[in-house]
Amino acid sequence: MPRKVKRQLPPSRIRYEEGNPTVSCRVSKDIYDRLVAAKEVEGKSFADILKIGLGKQEVQAKKVKVARQQAWDEGYKKGYADAALRYKVVYHCNVCRKEMEVTHENEKKAVNQFMLEHGWGHNECH
Predict the structure, then answer these.
(1) What is the CA 73 to chain-centroid distance, rounded?
(2) pLDDT digits over 103-112, tens only?
(3) Range of the domain at 97
(4) Cα(55)–Cα(45) distance, rounded to whole angstroms?
């Protein structure tokens, strides 16, 4: 039995195959028949049909990505607002009366000292 000798591919063919890899998959007979019908009606190749479907999928994927980001942003803003309402400590400036947030360590120490000096504590402790 003669041996098959694998012939050397020309560089142009190697470049073509690297730039255009083969895609292969198994589908049911029903899907195959639908693909063949679409191919004949539209006058397009299987590759063209795949490109159209991929384009639609990419559009849908982009919509989903945008919707997820919007939902995340809304949830983050709501969670941040809820946490700020519950945990943020503010007081009013004694000059302009604008609201100021306790953020600096010295302010936190002063608030703590004020609470201790004026008998603030848990309801059950008093």
Answers:
(1) 11
(2) 888 988 998 8
(3) 89-119
(4) 15
